[in-house]
Amino acid sequence: MEMMVSMWIVVLSAILGGFVTVKWVLMSVNWWVYETKLGDKQYCLPPGDLGWPFIGNMWSFLRAFKSKDPDSFIHSFVSRFGDVGIYKAFMFGNPSVIVTMPETCKRVLNDDNAFKPGWPTSAVELVGKKSFIGISYEEHKRLRRLTAASINGHEALSIYIPYIEDNVVSALEKWSELGEIEFLTHLRMLTFRIIMFIFLSSESQEVMEALEKEYTALNHGVRSMAINLPGFAYYNALKARKNLVAVFQSVVNERRSRGKANASSLKMNDMLDALLDVKDEKGEPLDDEEIIDIMLMYLNAGHESSAHTTMWATVFLQQHPEFLAKAKAEQERIAKKRSPTKEGLTLVEIREMKYLSKVIDETMRLITFSLTVFREALTDVNINGYVIPKGWKILVWFRSIHLDPEIYPNPKEFNPSRWDDHTAKANTFLPFGAGSRLCPGNDLAKLEIAIFLHHFLLNYRLERVNPESRVRYLPHTRPADNCLARVNRLTPSPPNKY
């Protein structure tokens, strides 16, 4: 009997030893492939690990972000390797370095000589090789200069206000009559309609609904694992991109034909017309691929962040009556001061919304719509005594900064009043990134959100059907039920126009 027990102990020990050995071998594959070839530089890499072969640290990343505690992913690095703010990992198919502190983020985001965009190949394939995430620094600077005025200039923002306001007012009135709706889904359609008008002057409901569905599939695939098999997000996203490119190619063809037929009277009405009219230093126009990729990028980014931020700001205010009262009182003061003969909000009034601006900033901080951006080292770079090897990816982890208790006390608490006596230090508030590649649509996004909240606070309230709905964190933070709710009007009839 004792001999049998001893034999089983030996067998189990052998099996356990085998598992340990296999695990050690597997965990050493990425080290052998990516680190040993660095020579002595491997000993200067940041602390961390490159995880399993091929998948690296992605399983632990996905597991954390599909749980109730997405920050457990970074916390695991901190607990194992110390709070150094820079860690090596294997993410999205590449050896990478994750930076989580303001100073390291500042260095990466602002040093264009040492770092270039480093988005995963799969993301570049989906968004476009000639979009802002796939082009060189010089080309990015040129195209940004050509396009930014169309969406962020003072004149452009003033022009868009009446259109945005008309759509917000009519949408809220319609939603209040529909009963239960997916609040986030309807907000995404609203912001998509607005961005479509700005970029394409298109108001076809049928076309917009079809395009918005394709953009949803595209967006879900951008940060997914690049598995091009049926049933996976990346596979669906590639199909969506193909469909979107076909639609936009037909629009570009139609615009070019219209331009040739009406060359003498052609007038730039929207951003597509502006892009078609652009000439480089040699007098050459942009080619179709450049135009389509830029449009796809802007249209995708231009409605997702606005819709999600608007939804969460509305939800957070409803959850905190004291902040709701302050925000509403400010909007009532602005509306009361308005001359009876004046129609609609003005840019001056929107810039007077000081407290509402704090609400929006606090919402963007708390949800951190884009949890990271990607860069790639152009050369070996030394940061805080560690070497980031040439060709390695860098993930600037915004979420860690926005939820750092040393920067923002009680960071997971929604508190717009924290901004009353708080001026964000450099690189501690990065909802739109930083440096030369700062999101060019930041002012337009905040304009949309402010206009919506102005009318919502004055005339409506949100009644969620499942206030305890589980929160999903990928690709962006949102309730699992897309905020199923009723939009209830506070007055028996809609207000007169503004």
UniProtKB/TrEMBL annotation:
Give residues annotated as binding heme: 439
Show the stretches that span the lipid bilayer: 7-34
UniProt function note: Catalyzes three successive oxidations of ent-kaurenoic acid giving gibberellin 12 (GA12), a key step in gibberellins (GAs) biosynthesis. GAs, which are involved many processes, including stem elongation, play a central role in plant development.
Name of the protein this chain belongs to = ENT-KAURENOIC ACID OXYDASE 1, cytochrome P450, family 88, subfamily A, polypeptide 3
Cellular component aspect of the GO annotation: endoplasmic reticulum; membrane
| UniProt pathway | Plant hormone biosynthesis; gibberellin biosynthesis; Hormone biosynthesis
Presence of the UniProt keyword Transmembrane helix in the record: yes
Q: How does it sit in the membrane?
A: Single-pass membrane protein
By sequence similarity, the record places it as follows: Belongs to the cytochrome P450 family.
Q: Which GO terms describe its biological process?
A: brassinosteroid biosynthetic process; brassinosteroid homeostasis; gibberellin biosynthetic process; sterol metabolic process
Keywords assigned by UniProt, alphabetized: Heme, Iron, Membrane, Metal-binding, Monooxygenase, Oxidoreductase, Transmembrane, Transmembrane helix
* Subcellular location as annotated: Membrane
Q: Name one GO molecular function term.
A: iron ion binding
Q: Which cofactor does it need?
A: heme
Q: Which InterPro entries match?
A: Cyt_P450, Cyt_P450_CS, Cyt_P450_E_grp-I, Cyt_P450_sf
Which N-terminal residues, if any, form the signal peptide? none
Give the source's domain of life in one word.
Eukaryota
